[in-house]
Design goal:
The longest helix is centred in the C-terminal third of the chain and has 11 residues. The relative contact order is 0.17. The chain is an alpha/beta fold. The chain has six helices and 14 strands. The radius of gyration is 17 Å and the shape is globular.
């Protein structure tokens, strides 16, 4: 399993418009963060988590030519607004694309993109939208026999319920401020955990870096990589202070898991 962090920034991206802070003026590429998203390659299977407003740029930069399925964590702008740019993935392959989201996001996706769903859709391909409330299988649109099981992990982003996702020994949990006790059992035995860690200071809807460290210690993944960082996080400074087996992610970071 090969994982690419397509974006590791917050809803405004880094650098932030009009900001003069040291991170926003940093020349280190690791301090330049598009909106948070992820690509998972499992053999021939190609899976995207979240399609934010930088989605087109991310696909071009990572040279992702095929997508079998899309998983959305939730329906906030910075995680869905590039959805329409899935269109080119139907120009050569007309097979339907299975898409999955938390039950609380389904109606928002349908309302924001009414032309994509349902019998009256005006879209060059078929996106089938499913509620991700139990484990499900992702299969190929392109004729491969490969498949993988995905386990939704229901967490809280402030008061909003949303999904993280586990595939094999890899889990991706972003935009989270609380993980309910029963969901921790789904995070046992991980090789790799990608986890929300917004900034040093506390926030009502995200883990701070210290909170993320505490959660990472509890989950005990072999490696934890933090994502969704705000401009208060200067990569080299904060990364040097992290415990062993924990790292700050950066755009384009390549990771592997079983």
């Amino acid at each position: 399993m090969r994982i690419t962090l397509l974006g590791t920034g917050t809803s405004v991206g880094i650098p932030m418009i009009g900001c003069d802070c040291e991170t926003c003026h940093s020349i280190d590429p690791k301090d330049q963060r598009l909106r948070t998203a992820c690509h998972i390659q499992v053999g021939e299977l190609s899976i995207i988590i979240d399609t934010g407003p930088d989605f087109r740029q991310q696909m071009l930069r990572a040279n992702i030519r095929k997508i079998d399925s899309v998983l959305w964590t939730h329906h906030h702008y910075d995680h869905i607004m590039g959805l329409d740019d899935l269109r080119p993935y139907f120009f050569e392959c007309f097979a339907p694309m299975a898409c999955f989201a938390h039950r609380d996001s389904i109606e928002s996706l349908k309302r924001i993109f009414p032309y994509i769903w349902g019998s009256s859709r005006m879209y060059p391909g078929t996106l089938n939208l499913f509620i991700a409330d139990r484990p499900f299988m992702i299969t190929s649109r392109y004729g491969s026999s490969e498949q993988i099981e995905v386990i939704p992990i229901e967490v809280f982003h402030g008061s909003l319920q949303l999904n993280g996702y586990r595939m094999g020994n890899f889990a991706y949990v972003t935009d989270v401020s609380h993980i309910p006790e029963p969901e921790y059992t789904k995070l046992e035995g991980l090789d790799l955990l990608v986890l929300d860690a917004l900034r040093p200071l506390k926030h009502p809807r995200h883990f701070s870096i210290n909170e993320a460290i505490e959660v990472a210690y509890r989950i005990k993944a072999k490696q934890t990589v933090f994502t969704h960082m705000a401009h208060q996080v200067l990569h080299d400074r904060e990364n040097a202070q992290l415990p062993e087996s924990m790292l700050l992610g950066y755009d384009g970071m390549l990771l592997e898991s079983s």
